[in-house]
Amino acid sequence: MPPAAKNAPKTKRTSQKFVIDASAPAQDKIFDAKAFEKFLHDRIKINGRTGQLGDAIVISRDQTDHKITVTTNTPQFAKRYLKYLTKKFMKKNQIRDWLRVVSVDKTTYQIRYFNITNQEEDDDDED
Fold it and tell me: What confidence tens digit (pLDDT) does each residue in 42-74 have?
């Protein structure tokens, strides 16, 4: 049996890139992408401390598309944490009743409106 490989490849720090697309509500002026970017910067925890992102996490906002990109070098940062913070921001601004966070693909969340048109039509049929 061969001894443990001494020259085993070291694990690389792969950077992860997550996108939160808030284009639909931001164009309707319901969702403030700039305030959300600041909220993320203030609330994301690294090693149990908020507001000390350093070079581990970079938060950027696209002015035209209203997309917020979070690029991280830490392997323990999860996409689910961004969803949690997004929901927390929406609850704080009292827009959680009209908006929801939906996963579009492996690295992207999209903020969408609830589909309430069907409920209104059902209510009219009951009368």
Answer: 999 988 888 888 888 999 998 888 899 999 998
The pTM of the whole model exceeds 0.90: no
* Helix, strand, coil percentages, rounded to 5, for the chain: 30, 30, 40
Q: State both tokens at 46.
A: 């690294």
Measured between alpha carbons, how far is 18 from 29 in angstroms, rounded to an integer?
23
Nearest to 19 by CA among 102, 114, 115: 102
| Contact (Cβ atoms closer than 8 angstroms) between residue 70 and residue 58 | yes
Q: Is 59 left (phi over 0), alpha (psi -120 to 50) or beta?
A: beta
